[in-house]
């Protein structure tokens, strides 16, 4: 067998073109065979099918690039939960834009590693400019804001707590009951005290309870607010929380992994007013930014806030190289080798501009409100509340939680729809997280029809088939 070609260099594109054609054909064929938002049959069907295509995982003799791509990509696509299908709406799992996926291919082919300048000369400059621009969106009135590219909201939240610990020692974290689980996990990982949880009886942090907690505790304190919860999509009262933090000398971190991109929409940016008052902000563009995972951001109001992350490894950032002008990249992440995820983000922002990104955000928010309106007009369905961003909770009227869970699993097993679930206000709800800007009113009505049909067709106590 000849030596396989490489993706980079002057010959790489010629080697990639026929392989990409094979991949694209396999993606299309697999999607046609799946014919829906996810494969029918559940794990008992999907897993054996994939294993048949994959066996043997490591053959003695290779099957060749085109055969391997055709077989595995087709099987993977046929067995995928496809967020590009309007009825795949369970999670903050976005359908990536084609332009972003294409840019990600270039990043993979060039394969710059973002831990030293000599591995990523242009990519490091692109990342520096992109992170400055995104940080300036969050902190428009600061002179030197900065941001780091992360693997997502979880890593960004962990870095925020780490930086607070490095500033103040064993900081006491205060979180809402609505906060993402990564806050508690980060405190555990960093050896910090277990976070104090503030009740969120209406879905957002209770201000009176927060004020009482801040008044009785001694510092150092870090309040973590949420702009876009995973359960309901609600946004904490950010400015009021910032006022309380200022009064009591606490720092503020805002997890805006979901809601942060609303900044780009003139229609919706008022919902995240107060982001610029935080000591750090998490943003996640593989949610309401339509990027392939991963595309997380941690922003801070001053680049010196990141100094604690500086790390010295002479083979990557020797002192004399740094003094000679080579950028030191090790302080840009806790990871060493890391992908140039900034590339796809930068290409997307260039391609769409502010108005294009705002249009996607506005379309998706409008679809969520339309879904909520359809639910309120359907007498057999209950709406939790109108959406803050794009998350809509609903359930069939006069059903118990077991039936709600069974409806969801039945839709999954039959391959008809992907809905999430969340328990709030004492009941289990179906959750539609709309992130597909191509979703139509017809798609939304079809989703509700599937739910209402099952609500009447499934016998009580049944299990999905």
Q: Can you give a write-up of this model?
A:
Its cofactor is pyridoxal 5'-phosphate. It comes from Streptomyces laculatispora. This protein is an alpha/beta fold. It folds into three domains: 19-80, no CATH class; 105-351, Aspartate Aminotransferase, domain 2; 353-457, Alpha-Beta Complex (Aspartate Aminotransferase, domain 1). Helix content is 43%, strand content 12%. It has 14 helices and eleven strands. The strands form two sheets. Strands 1-7-6-5-4-2-3 form a seven-stranded mixed sheet, sandwiched between helices. It has a four-stranded antiparallel sheet with strand order 8-9-11-10. Helix 4 (98-110) runs antiparallel to helix 12 (342-376) and helix 5 (121-138) runs parallel beside helix 12 (342-376). The longest helix is centred in the last third of the chain and has 35 residues, at 342-376. The chain starts with 11 loop residues before the first helix and ends in an 8-residue tail after the last helix. The mean pLDDT is 97.
């Amino acid at each position: 067998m000849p030596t396989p070609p490489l993706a980079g260099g002057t010959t790489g594109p010629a080697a990639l073109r026929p392989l990409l054609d094979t991949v694209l054909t396999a993606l299309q064929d697999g999607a046609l065979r799946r014919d829906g938002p996810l494969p029918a049959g559940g794990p008992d069907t999907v897993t054996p099918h994939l294993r048949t295509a994959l066996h043997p995982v490591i053959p003695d003799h290779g099957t060749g690039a085109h055969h391997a791509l055709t077989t595995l990509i087709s099987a993977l696509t046929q067995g995928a939960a496809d967020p590009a299908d309007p009825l795949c709406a369970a999670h903050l799992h976005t359908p990536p834009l084609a332009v972003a996926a294409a840019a990600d291919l270039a990043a993979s082919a060039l394969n710059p590693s973002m831990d030293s300048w000599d591995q990523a000369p242009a990519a490091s400059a692109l990342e520096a400019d992109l992170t400055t621009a995104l940080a300036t969106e969050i902190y428009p009135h600061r002179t030197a804001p900065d941001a780091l590219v992360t693997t997502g909201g979880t890593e960004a939240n962990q870095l925020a707590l780490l930086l607070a610990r490095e500033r103040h020692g064993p900081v006491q974290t205060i979180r809402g009951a609505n906060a993402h689980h990564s806050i508690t996990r980060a405190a555990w990982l960093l050896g910090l005290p277990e976070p104090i949880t503030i009740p969120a009886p209406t879905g957002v942090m209770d201000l009176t309870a927060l004020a009482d907690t801040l008044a009785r505790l001694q510092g150092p304190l870090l309040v973590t607010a949420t702009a876009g919860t995973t359960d309901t999509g609600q946004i904490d009262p950010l400015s009021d929380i910032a006022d309380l933090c200022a009064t009591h000398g606490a720092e503020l971190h805002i997890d805006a992994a979901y809601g942060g991109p609303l900044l780009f929409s003139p229609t919706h940016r008022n919902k995240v007013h107060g982001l610029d008052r935080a000591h750090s902000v998490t943003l996640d563009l593989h949610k309401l930014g339509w990027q392939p995972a991963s595309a997380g951001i941690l922003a801070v109001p001053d680049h010196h806030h990141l100094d604690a992350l500086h790390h010295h490894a002479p083979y990557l950032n020797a002192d004399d190289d740094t003094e000679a002008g080579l950028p030191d990249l090790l302080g840009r992440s806790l990871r060493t080798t890391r992908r140039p995820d900034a590339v796809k983000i930068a290409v997307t922002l260039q391609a769409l501009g502010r108005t294009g990104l705002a249009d996607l955000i506005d379309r998706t928010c409008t679809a969520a409100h339309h879904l909520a309106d359809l639910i309120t007009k359907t007498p057999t369905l209950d709406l939790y509340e109108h959406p803050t961003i794009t998350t809509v909770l609903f359930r069939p009227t006069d059903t118990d939680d077991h039936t709600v869970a069974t409806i969801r699993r039945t839709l999954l097993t039959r391959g008809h729809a992907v809905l999430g679930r969340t328990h709030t206000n004492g009941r289990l709800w179906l959750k539609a997280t709309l992130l597909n800007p191509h979703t139509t009113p017809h798609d939304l009505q079809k989703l509700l029809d599937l739910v209402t049909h099952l609500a009447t067709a499934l016998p009580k106590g049944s299990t999905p088939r």
